[in-house]
Amino acid sequence: MAKRIALAQLSSCWGCDQSLVDLHLGLLDVLPKLDIVFWPTVVDYKLADLEALPNRSVHIGMVEGSCRTKEDLHLLKVMREKCKTLVAWGSCSIFGGVQGLANQWDLKELLERKFIQAETVTDPRIPDENMPGFTEHITPNPQIVECDVLLPGCPPTSENTLDALTALLTNKPFDLPTKTVCDQCPMERKEKHIKKFKRNYEGNIEAGKCILDQGYLCLGFATMGLCGAQCPSVTTPCKGCFGPTPIMSDHGAKIISALGAVAEMEPEELKGSFPDPIGSFYFTDYAASYLSKMRGKERGQEH
Ligand code: SF4
Ligand code: SF4
Ligand code: SF4
């Protein structure tokens, strides 16, 4: 019998959904085993359709995106009520995503920046009609509701999503690896003596050789190895989009300590090498970091 599945999108770019659709004919392996009961991306389902389902009547729920609005928060809680197995799908869902970087500011500052101060604004006012209401900050979904399966990536590869679905359909566990992107990477490595960090646009990255050894910030050493090292394999630095491995407690802290060990430069010079350290070291997971939690506590926010 086909398993009932619901796929929901919170605030996100919908790229995780796109990655699933990118399976093209590969979808034929799983589609006959799935009974889709909610997937607004492809069919005009409404929230009321999901709310009308009996609790725990959906076998698999896939939640993409994070809670930037109160509407997102409601949808996440409804998904938890209706689904037996809830998958936090993608780095937005697990860690808060790129939009979690907004936790560096409070909501008032964000709204003023976007709707009043931004250089392109022609009618400066904060809209309040027909708005769902914003959450004060981004909290990773697993800190709001229990998530049974975590599938990171921005987006997870199509194969990652297929593997997770196949595991769920066959009642097998879907465990996250403790290996890193470096463990999957075919680039030739040497002992590291980094004397200067370059921005990606400075010079040319040499193919076939470790990108970090060449002085470019490649975060494969601190990032979960689930993507097959797809960026360094095409001579592009890893930005860390799959987040830390399950045995690393904080992504940015791991990156900073590792860079300190391999960079042959004074601490101030190392610090000055990265104009946007939070954006560089927590590309998709700032909202899940100790730093974000500490800043939230300073502002009296519950995380
Ligand atoms: S995890 Fe990345 S690809 Fe997926 S919805 Fe979020 S921003 Fe888009
Ligand atoms: S640092 Fe980057 S290029 Fe070097 S081995 Fe790790 S993933 Fe590959
Ligand atoms: S190599 Fe790094 S940035 Fe690229 S997909 Fe993998 S984890 Fe993400």
What tags apply to this protein structure?
303 residues; 5-stranded parallel β-sheet; binds iron/sulfur cluster; 5 strands; Rossmann fold; 2 domains; single chain; 29% helix; alpha/beta
Low-confidence stretches: none
Cα separation of the termini:
40 Å
* CATH-derived architecture of the largest domain: 3-Layer(aba) Sandwich
Reading the helices and strands in chain order gives EHEHEHEHHEHHHHHH
Largest sheet: 5 strands, parallel
- The helix/strand class is alpha/beta
Number of domains: 2
CATH class of the largest domain: Alpha Beta
Helical content stands at 25-40%
Name the shape in a single word.
Answer: globular
Number of strands: 5
Strand order in the largest sheet? 2-1-3-4-5
How much is the radius of gyration in Å? Answer: 21 Å
How many H/I helical runs? 11
What do we call the CATH homologous superfamily of the largest domain? NADH:ubiquinone oxidoreductase-like, 20kDa subunit
Percentage beta strand: 5-15%
Account of the 3D structure:
The chain has helices at residues 15-21, 47-51, 70-82, 91-95, 107-117, 158-169, 181-184, 251-262, 267-272, 277-281, 290-298; strands at residues 3-9, 34-38, 58-64, 83-89, 149-151. By secondary structure, it is of the alpha/beta class. The protein folds into two domains: 3-99 and 130-169, Rossmann fold; 181-297, no CATH class. The chain has a five-stranded parallel sheet with strand order 2-1-3-4-5, with helices on both faces. Helix 1 packs across helix 6. The protein is globular and about 60 Å long. The site of one iron/sulfur cluster (SF4) has 11 residues, from loops. The site of one iron/sulfur cluster has 14 residues, from helix 1 and helix 4.
